[in-house]
Design goal:
Elements (H helix, E strand, L loop, with lengths): L2 H11 L4 E8 L6 H14 L3 E6 L14 H12 L5 E3 L2 H4 L6 H12 L3 E8 H5 L7 H7 L1 E5 L19 E4 L8 H9 L10 H10 L15
Parallel strand pairs: 1-2, 1-4, 2-3, 4-5, 5-6
The structure holds adenosine-5'-triphosphate (ATP) and nicotinate mononucleotide.
Length: 223
């Protein structure tokens, strides 16, 4: 029996619904800001599991080059492997075309069944944009949304007044001023990313030669 099946069985035994957190992201690369956000929401909302879902094709990031889905998927697996409550789903990278959260949540609902409540975890920056997402009006029927604070992105409950109040919660989490953009820029500038991302991610980036210096290629020493 997998740990997910075990937790499902335990929740059923206790006569309560399974609580599944869904942390969607491009994860190019995954960093400690993502992991702390997921861990905090899991603790505050009593989640049984958080499933990380790397995007297939992030349509709102068409203006930039995004690493191969398999690299982003493997980095997500490496970063979450040590936490028994964390798992990774391929639903978005295995679906063709642009990635929409309405599809992510529909697929997970189908996969996990009706006894599961979904909590979609999102940073303040993404939450601000949520009404631009495809099928936005259906999103709040599929999951409860938890918006976590993010340094540099001011967000108060007033900013959420246009969203259904019973479907969105704002949660303050320890502030980590880390972004994937900054991690990529640091790798290109041969600056360290140790402690911004899990150790295995530093090593995976070096091994795969991700984020090469434009026109130069992969630096010799990425430590
Ligand atoms: N440091 C952080 N604190 C809180 N939430 C975060 C943080 N970094 C990312 N998130 C949230 O995690 C989700 C996935 O983020 P994503 O993979 O796009 O990372 P990112 O650091 O924002 O990437 P990029 O810099 O490439 O745009 C989004 O909802 C985002 O708001
Ligand atoms: O559904 C949409 O239209 C949509 C538009 C932009 C972002 N999202 C989702 O929001 C999550 C964070 O996205 P990103 O681009 O900030 O990594 C991820 O799960 C995306 O699939 C979803």
């Amino acid at each position: 029996m997998s740990s997910t099946e075990l937790a499902l069985a335990r929740a059923a035994h206790q006569g309560r619904r399974y609580r599944l957190g869904v942390m969607g992201g491009t994860f190019d690369p995954i960093h400690h800001g993502h992991l702390v956000a997921a861990s905090e929401v899991a603790s505050k909302f009593g989640l049984d599991e958080v499933v990380f879902v790397p995007t297939g094709q992030p349509w709102q990031k068409r203006d930039r080059v995004v690493s191969l889905a398999e690299d982003r998927y493997l980095m997500t697996v490496i970063a979450t492997a040590s936490n028994p409550r964390f798992s990774v789903s391929r639903v978005d990278i295995d679906r063709e075309g642009d990635t929409y959260t309405v599809d992510t949540l529909t697929d997970l609902r189908r996969e996990r069944g009706d006894d599961t409540d979904l909590f979609f975890i999102t940073g303040a920056d993404a939450l601000r944009q949520i009404l631009t997402w495809r099928g936005a009006e259906r999103l709040f029927e599929l999951a409860h949304f938890v918006g976590v604070t993010r340094p540099g992105v001011p967000l108060t409950s007033k900013d959420l007044s246009h969203l259904p109040s019973d479907a969105v919660t704002l949660l303050e989490v320890p502030a980590l001023a880390i972004s994937s953009t900054d991690c990529r820029d640091r790798v290109r500038a041969q600056q360290p990313i140790w402690y911004l991302v899990p150790d295995g991610i530093v090593q995976y980036i070096a091994k795969r030669g991700l984020y090469p210096v434009p026109g130069v290629g992969v630096p010799d020493d990425r430590s």
